[in-house]
Amino acid sequence: MSSGPLKPQEILEVSLSAAETKAKSSFVKLAVLGFLAGAFIAFAAEGSNMAAFNLLANSATYGLGRALAGAIFGTGLMLVVLAGGELFTGNTLMLGGVVSRRISVPGMLKNWLIVYIFNFIGSVFLAWLMFHSGLFHSSGDLLGAVTIKIAAGKTGLAFSSAFILGILCNWLVCLAVWLAYGADTMAGKIFGIFFPIWLFITSGFEHSVANMYYIPAGILAKSNPEQLQQALSIGVSQAAIDGLNWQSFFVNNLIPVTLGNIIGGGVFVSLAYLLAYHVRKKNA
């Protein structure tokens, strides 16, 4: 391969080689790196909420709040890619490895299942730590209220909306991973990650692993009377709050968003580039 940033067809080869490595990884490696990646994404979620909660509480400044949150959130994927982690959404790129017969379906599914479970554990663990840290009481419980508002909005989505928002999200997330694969310096990888992630958060798309923090954090914050009352005061309806629970987390959000994430990253990034460059290379 040439020195400097990789060309798209070279990034494809890096992605396929990464899929081979991931499919062969041990349970312990996937479990530890999956837990860390879930925690890294949760750090990004809580930090972006902390930065923008005053703006997110007000409909007039909501868009600006999303943009500010997006500028913070990319740190999570930077930690996953550069420090080391196994993230389910990024690993949907392994679908190209299956189609190109570089890895088996069971190898891909083993990776996905283990990583998904431990992403969940890492994310929920951070949500639990944040709740018990007392930080949700920030600004007169407004951070807790906004945490409830975000979670209730996510569990209130229709299945089709959550599915489509999941596609759009992971299309951008996997493009961020793709650009990081192609960069030859630490700074290049950081910039490659930053802008697609900024765009996805600003747009309001749905990321399954991020939601493993956002929604459990909202459910926990809902159990605090002061934060619950503050959520009502900023316009969160009682019906939306009543609909925020563990069942709605899985049924209304996590399942459709996860399916959408698989399509967004696996089809619109991995398989799209495989079709464009692998077939072309074979024909050449």
Structure description:
This protein has helices at 8-24, 27-56, 62-84, 88-91, 95-99, 105-133, 138-155, 159-182, 186-203, 208-222, 225-233, 238-242, 246-283. The protein has 284 residues and is mainly α. It has a single domain, classed as Glycerol uptake facilitator protein (Up-down Bundle), CATH 1.20.1080. α2 packs antiparallel against α3 (62-84), α6 runs parallel beside α10 (208-222) and α8 (159-182) packs across α13 (246-283).
Poorly predicted sequence stretches spanning 5 or more consecutive residues: none
CATH third-tier fold name? Glycerol uptake facilitator protein
Helix content: over 70%
Order of helices and strands: HHHHHHHHHHHHH
User: How far apart are the termini?
Assistant: 17 Å
- What is the radius of gyration? 19 Å
Mean pLDDT value: 96
> Which superfamily, in CATH terms, is the homologous superfamily?
Glycerol uptake facilitator protein
> Helix count?
13
**Overall outline:** elongated
Class from secondary-structure proportions = mainly alpha
- Annotation, overall tally of beta strands: 0
- Overall tally of structural domains: 1
Proper CATH architecture: Up-down Bundle
What fraction strand?
under 5%
User: Biggest sheet, open or closed, and with what strands and sense?
Assistant: none
CATH secondary-structure class? Mainly Alpha
